[in-house]
């Protein structure tokens, strides 16, 4: 059994209650299944979906991540590329959104579950 910190459990998208069970069915860049999330933890049985449409609130986290990404990429382009026009910004931001969409989708849900899921970390006792 691997002991995970809360940060590494969030990073690896693990269950907030046991930090072992995976939240998602497949890897982030499996484009057919990256949206699919487990309903219940395989390890401890914690419910990941508290109520219907529970994860609608994660859109706000995703929005904040997108705004942060836009600002960072705009700053990087502004300071690294001379003669950058509006097309440069548009192409960079659109390609970032397309490439990072699976990760932003997942981590917004993971952060939402850790923040509002009401699951407390209860490590399993070893015999
Ligand atoms: Zn669990």
Description:
The chain crosses the membrane at residues 60-81, 87-105. InterPro entries: DUF983. This is DUF983 domain-containing protein. Keywords: Membrane, Transmembrane, Transmembrane helix. The structure is a single chain. The protein is mainly α and 127 residues long. The protein has one domain. The chain has three helices and no strands. It has helices at residues 6-11, 58-80, 86-116. The chain is elongated, with a radius of gyration of 18 Å. The relative contact order is 0.19. The mean pLDDT is 92.
Share in helix:
40-55%
Which hetero ligands occur in this complex?
zinc ion
Distance between the termini: 13 Å
The value of Rg in angstroms is 18 Å
Sheet-strand content, in percent, reads under 5%
| Order of helix and strand elements from N to C terminus | HHH
- Individual helix count: 3
Q: What would you say about this model in short?
A:
The chain is built from three helices and no strands. The protein has 127 residues and is mainly α.
Tags for this model:
transmembrane; membrane; 0% strand; DUF983 domain-containing protein; binds zinc ion; mainly alpha; DUF983
Reconstruct the topology from this structure.
Layout: H1 6-11, H2 58-80, H3 86-116
The structure holds zinc ion.
InterPro entries: DUF983 (IPR009325)
Pfam families: DUF983 (PF06170)
Keywords: Membrane, Transmembrane, Transmembrane helix
